[in-house]
Design goal:
single chain; alpha/beta; Aminopeptidase; six-stranded mixed beta sheet; two-stranded parallel ribbon; 7 helices; binds zinc ion
Length: 251
C-alpha cells in the first residue's frame, strides 16, 4: 500500500525485505522497510523516518484481558507515517535542493518489556545494510499525533546532533508552536539510536512520550485510537519539517 502510494511521487522507492530470528517466540519474522528517495543527485542527504509497524501486545492496557491484543497505534506508529506520506506529496510537487529519503521502518515496536533486543529491528537492519548513500543527518518522528502535544528535546538527540535540534526548535518557535519545548527531556530508545550506533549518522528523535500526559496513559493500550490524536499536532510537526527541508528560515 505504501509502495503504491509512494511510487508515483518519489524518484525511486526501495523495498528492503529482511528476516529476524525472534528467540523468545522461536520464529523467523519477515519484515520490510520502505525508502522513498527524492533529489538523490543533490547529495547532503537527509533522512526523515517513522515506524509503520504497530505493537502486537497492549501490555499497558488497564484491562488484563486486552494485554495480549495488538494495538491500533493511531499515535504510536500511524501519526509519524501520516506526516511522512504528506511530506512525500510536497516533495513530489517541489523538488528539494538536497537529497531527502523518507524511511518507513518496520519492527520498531515488537520488543519485550525489559529487553531492548527486539525493539527497533528495522532501523538496525537499515543502519547495518544502508540501501542509499550515507546521509549526513536523520530525523525520526514518533508519537507526534497526541492531541495534547508536548515535545521536549530527547536527551540522546541533543548529544548526537545539537545543531539540528536547535534549528528545528527555532523553526517551531518562529511559528509560535509552543508544543515544541526547548528543554532536555527524557532519554528514549527509538529508531534514531541504531542509526547513530550502527551507521554513525547524527540523528534526532521528535517524540512526545507522555500520551496524553503524565497522569493518564494510552501508550501501548487499546486506547491508542484516532480520537486521541489531533490534525493540528500532525500539522505542527509537518510544517517544521517542511521549513527545514526547504531551508525556509534564517540561520
Ligand atoms: Zn510503542
Amino acid at each position: 500500500m505504501f509502495i503504491a502510494f509512494l511510487t508515483p511521487l518519489a524518484d525511486t522507492v526501495i523495498q528492503q525485505d529482511f528476516e529476524w530470528y525472534i528467540k523468545p517466540d522461536d520464529i523467523n519474522f519477515n519484515m520490510t522497510n520502505i525508502i522513498a528517495n527524492f533529489s538523490m543527485e543533490k547529495g547532503n542527504g537527509l533522512i526523515i523516518a517513522a515506524h509503520w509497524d504497530t505493537r502486537p501486545r497492549a501490555e499497558h492496557d488497564p484491562n488484563p484481558r486486552n494485554r495480549g491484543m495488538p494495538i491500533i497505534g493511531a499515535n504510536d506508529g500511524a501519526s509519524g507515517i501520516a506526516v511522512l506520506m504528506h511530506l512525500a506529496e510536497h516533495l513530489a510537487e517541489k523538488k528539494p535542493d538536497r537529497a531527502v529519503s523518507l524511511v518507513f521502518f518496520d519492527g520498531e515496536d515488537y520488543g519485550f518489556t525489559g529487553n531492548l533486543e527486539y525493539y527497533c529491528m528495522g532501523s538496525e537492519y537499515f543502519a547495518k545494510n544502508l540501501p542509499i548513500p550515507k546521509p549526513v543527518e536523520a530525523i525520526v518522528i514518533d508519537m507526534i499525533g497526541d492531541a495534547e502535544l508536548t515535545i521536549p528535546v530527547e536527551r540522546s538527540s541533543y548529544r548526537s546532533h545539537p545543531k539540528l535540534v536547535e534549528s528545528l526548535w527555532k523553526i517551531a518557535d518562529r511559528h509560535g508552536y509552543s508544543e515544541f519545548e526547548y528543554r532536555i527531556g527524557e532519554e528514549i530508545y527509538d529508531d534514531h539510536i541504531p542509526l547513530i550506533k550502527f551507521a554513525d549518522i547524527p540523528s534526532i528523535d521528535i517524540i512526545d512520550f507522555h500520551y496524553p500526559n503524565r497522569f493518564t496513559n494510552y501508550w501501548h493500550t487499546l486506547q491508542d485510537t484516532p480520537d486521541k490524536c489531533s490534525p493540528r499536532s500532525l500539522e505542527v510537526v509537518g510544517q517544521v519539517l517542511l521549513d527545514y527541508i526547504y531551508q525556509e528560515y534564517n540561520h
